[in-house]
What does this fold into?
Amino acid sequence: MRKIYVRNLTKTKFDLKFLKTVVKTVCHLGRIKQEEIGIILLDDQKIQEYNLEYRGADRPTDVLAFPVDEKIGELFISLESARKQAQVYRQSLKKEVSLLVIHGLLHLDGYNDTTQKDKAVMSREETRILNLL
It folds into this structure.
């Protein structure tokens, strides 16, 4: 049985049970190997610190995926960035965060988005999974 934990370190209220359901569904559909998955909800300032420390990019980002080891993976998601993106794409915050969870889980599964070809492959898989939720 997969263990899923979610922590909201922001002042923004968010349905954590919904996030667990998204993770369970995506894991059931995909090839996610990790037995334990953590989701940490952050603000832009905190995710920018992690982005600088782990990726060398001194700017906020929407999601960071960390394969801690073969059994544990963590996703850091900026609710602040997700809210901004949801407004830009005219969709709910829940849908945007769902997409970020999918994106992060695909990274844990080995997907990459560093080239245009990789981005296209990953985007198609994200859309396929999102449509199944």
